[in-house]
Write a structure and sequence with these properties.
heterodimer, A: about 160 residues, alpha/beta, Rossmann fold, 6-stranded mixed β-sheet, 4 helices, B: about 130 residues, 5-stranded parallel β-sheet, globular
Chain lengths: ~160, ~130
C-alpha cells in the first residue's frame, strides 16, 4: 500500500498566515499529498492557576481539542480549497514539549510549513525567552519553509 | 480513604527541587527531592513512589537509567522526564522506554502540574480497575 505524502503546517494560534496556507495547499496539490496541520496551544500559559483549576481543565481537553480542530478547518478551507485532504491535530500543553513528542511518534514529512507570523520565529515572550518555534527547523529532517506574502505573487518563501 | 500520592523530584539543579517541592506540596502531594541519581536510586530501593519527575543529564546516574530501573521494578510508577536538552530523539527514547510524559526546560510549573495531575488520575483509575 502506498503511503500518502505528508505536508506539515505548524500553527501556534488560529491566525494562520494566508500566504502559508496557500503555499502549503499548492504544494500538497502538486505532490498529491495530504496537509497535516499541527496546532500547538498552551492553555495554561503564564497564568498562576490553582490545582483545582488544573484539575478542572482535564475533562475539558477533549472538547477544547474538538473546538480548535473545527475552528482550524473553518479558517483553512476557504484558503486551501476542497481538494486537498486536510488533517488537523491539536496539541495542548507546553509547545516545545508537545512538538517534540508529536515528531517523535509520527512519520516524517516531505515539507514543513510555518503557518504563523515570521516574527514569532524570532521574538520570545514577555520574559525574553527564546521562542519555541525557533527550535523547530533543527528538529526536522525535512525542509522547513516560511512563506512570505509578496505584492506580486501572493506568497514567497524562505527556509 | 484519601492517601497522599508520593512524588520524587530528581534534578542536579537545586533550584528545580526547591521550586517544585512547595508548589506540589500545596497541591496535596508528599514530595522528596534529590540532587543526584545515585541517592535517588537508593531511595527508590527503600520506598515505592507513585510519580517520579527526573532530569536527564546528571553526573552519576542519568534520568534514562532511573526511568529504566523504575519501569523494571515498579511498572505502575509514572515517570516524567524533564530536560534542558530536549530533542525529538530524546523524546522518542523516553516514550519508548515507558515515560509517562516528557517536558522540555524551561517549563512553567503550571504545565508540569497539569501533567502530574493527569498521572495522578491515571494512577487512581488504575487502582479502581484492579480493585473492582
Amino acid at each position: 500500500m502506498l503511503r500518502q505524502t505528508r505536508i506539515a503546517v505548524f500553527m501556534e494560534d488560529l491566525n494562520v498566515q494566508p500566504a502559508a496556507a496557500r503555499y502549503a495547499a499548492a504544494l500538497a496539490q502538486r505532490m498529491n499529498a495530504g496537509l497535516y496541520v499541527l496546532l500547538l496551544i498552551d492553555p495554561v500559559g503564564d497564568r498562576r492557576d490553582t490545582p483545582r483549576r488544573a484539575r478542572e481543565q482535564l475533562p475539558d481537553t477533549a472538547r477544547l481539542r474538538t473546538e480548535y480542530r473545527l475552528a482550524v478547518k473553518r479558517s483553512l478551507r476557504p484558503l486551501i480549497g476542497k481538494r486537498v485532504p486536510l488533517h488537523v491535530e491539536v496539541l495542548l500543553g507546553d509547545r516545545t514539549s508537545e512538538f517534540l513528542k508529536y515528531m517523535a511518534s509520527n512519520p516524517v514529512f516531505h515539507t514543513a510549513v510555518w503557518g504563523g507570523t515570521e516574527s514569532a520565529l524570532h521574538h520570545g515572550g514577555s520574559r525574553g525567552r527564546r521562542p519555541w518555534a525557533a527550535g523547530i527547523a533543527k528538529e526536522l529532517s525535512c525542509p522547513f519553509v516560511v512563506p512570505r506574502a509578496t505584492p506580486t505573487s501572493g506568497a514567497g518563501t524562505s527556509s | 480513604m484519601d492517601q497522599k500520592l508520593n512524588i520524587m523530584v530528581v534534578d542536579d539543579e537545586a533550584i528545580v527541587g526547591k521550586r517544585l517541592k512547595p508548589t506540589l506540596e500545596r497541591d496535596g502531594y508528599e514530595v522528596e527531592t534529590f540532587g543526584d541519581g545515585t541517592s535517588a536510586l537508593d531511595r527508590i530501593g527503600q520506598k515505592d513512589f507513585d510519580i517520579i519527575v527526573t532530569d536527564v543529564r546528571m553526573d552519576d546516574v542519568d534520568g534514562m537509567q532511573i526511568l529504566e530501573h523504575v519501569k523494571r521494578h515498579s511498572p505502575r510508577t509514572k515517570v516524567i522526564i524533564i530536560t534542558g536538552y530536549a530533542t525529538v530523539d530524546l523524546a522518542r527514547e523516553a516514550l519508548v522506554k515507558g515515560a509517562f510524559d516528557f517536558i522540555a526546560k524551561p517549563f512553567k510549573p503550571a504545565d508540569l502540574r497539569v501533567i502530574i495531575e493527569k498521572a495522578a488520575v491515571d494512577l487512581t483509575d488504575g487502582q479502581l480497575t484492579t480493585t473492582v
